[in-house]
Specification:
The protein is mainly alpha-helical. It has three domains: about 45 residues; about 90 residues, Type II secretion system (T2SS), domain F (Receptor-associated Protein), CATH 1.20.81; about 230 residues, Type II secretion system (T2SS), domain F (Receptor-associated Protein). The protein contains 16 helices and three strands. It has a three-stranded antiparallel β-sheet with strand order 2-1-3. Strand 1 and strand 2 form a beta hairpin. Helix 14 packs antiparallel against helix 15. The longest helix has about 60 residues. The N and C termini lie far apart (about 90 Å).
Length: about 400
């Protein structure tokens, strides 16, 4: 049964009146919870449901929502509050209604006797394998508050990386959109007007002008629709191709070889691999289980397969560094640092140090990619628009010289 929200009013032992809201399955449950907190209930009523028109499945749960939830939960558990009560409070206080509903369901499962990790596992779209396994390790070791703090820090670091990459792509995307829009406007609106004027003059047109006019006629007719179908078909086909194992392997392999962008993808993969595995090992998750989780969250098929091959070698008694070196996906510096970490018995600390280093490397790669894309797009815009304008002005110059 889904928990309902109750509005309560009660008195403390000192006689002070307090008010609040609690999520519970019944009025009696609220009274019992209040008495546990040494509050004498005066009035407990179900909160009236608000009438809302819903257009969709509710607000999207973002990484930021999960980080805030994790931080708050860690703080409450560290303060000594029982897990059910923490989830109770967060279910009411969480602003995102979709997350609040899920927290309420998790609370009900925990109260029914399920472990916190098992309750989270029922919501894989919100709490991934990494989250669930780290919580399970925290519950087993009695350090759930510490694990949750590590989880929140981990998620914040990767949310920062994602934000940097998205921000870096905004300006080039806008420039590319403007370039395509300007060229399309010139070819569909301006060029036909000038073409009619040139046709009435009866003069022979230069080759660049004929090329531009022919392309303009192509876009105005069925050509524009055909071109649109080809572009859309390419992206739809690529998406379907990436749904296959072989397609994902091929496209991800090509992505790693793209100049500059491939280097960025590799650095992000290294940072994610080392940060995730280091966090899992520090939290007490066995290395084989950690490698399995890391492979599922790699984000690149080539990297995922390299990690799985490494896991197979480790399960056969080999070191972590040896198969990673053979995979040739990770830089030699990373492999050597991991080897040192294994030799000194401080692999988790070494992985976290590598992750810190590669966080800075990702920053540098994003800056390099942005600095290269901007001038390249500006050159593309200038050359394309300049060619169209010059091609359409050449006949005008010819007409001027003829009249002269």
């Amino acid at each position: 049964m889904a928990a309902s929200v109750f509005v309560w009013e009660g008195k403390t032992r000192q006689g002070a009146v307090q008010k609040g809201e609690l999520a519970a399955n019944s009025k009696e449950e609220v009274i019992a919870l209040l008495r546990k907190q040494n509050i004498l209930p005066i009035n407990v009523t179900a909160k009236p449901k608000e009438l809302k028109l819903s257009f969709g499945g509710g607000p999207k749960i973002t990484d930021k929502d999960i980080v805030i939830f994790t931080r708050q939960l860690a703080t409450m558990i560290d303060a000594g509050l029982p897990l059910v009560q923490c989830l109770d409070i967060l279910g009411v206080q969480t602003e995102n209604k979709s997350l609040a509903k899920i927290v309420g369901q998790v609370r009900s499962d925990v109260e029914s006797g399920a472990t916190f990790a098992d309750a989270l596992k029922k919501h894989p779209k919100v709490f991934d394998n990494l989250y669930v396994n780290m919580v399970a390790a925290g519950e087993a070791g009695g350090i759930l508050d510490t694990i949750l703090q590590r989880l929140a820090s981990y998620m914040e670091k990767f949310a920062k990386i994602k934000s940097q990459i998205k921000s870096a792509m905004i300006y080039p995307s806008v420039i590319l959109f403007v370039a395509v829009a300007v060229v399309a406007l010139l070819l569909v609106v301006v060029v036909p007007m000038l073409a009619n004027m040139f046709a009435s003059s009866g003069q022979a047109l230069p080759l660049p002008t004929r090329i531009v006019i022919a392309f303009s006629d192509f876009l105005k007719g069925w050509g524009g629709l055909i071109l649109l179908v080809i572009v859309v078909g390419f992206f739809v086909g690529l998406k379907q191709f990436r749904k296959t194992e072989n397609g994902l392997r091929i496209t991800d392999g090509i992505a790693l070889k793209i100049p500059v962008a491939g280097s960025l993808i590799q650095r992000v993969s290294v940072a994610k691999f080392t940060r995730t595995l280091g966090t899992l090992m520090t939290s007490g998750v066995p290395i084989l289980e950690g490698l399995l989780i890391v492979s599922r969250t790699a984000g690149n098929k080539v990297v995922e397969e390299a990690i799985m091959q490494t896991r197979q070698s480790v399960s056969e008694g080999k070191t972590l560094a040896e198969p990673l070196g053979r995979a040739k996906v990770f830089p030699q510096m990373v492999v050597q640092m991991i080897a040192v970490g294994e030799a000194t018995g401080a692999l988790d600390n070494m992985l976290n140090k590598i992750a810190d280093f590669y966080d800075d490397e990702v920053d540098a790669a994003v800056a390099t990619l942005t600095s290269m894309l901007e001038p390249m797009l500006m050159i593309f815009l200038g050359v394309t628009v300049g060619f169209v304008i010059i091609a359409m002005y050449m006949p005008i110059f010819q007409m001027g010289s003829t009249v002269g």
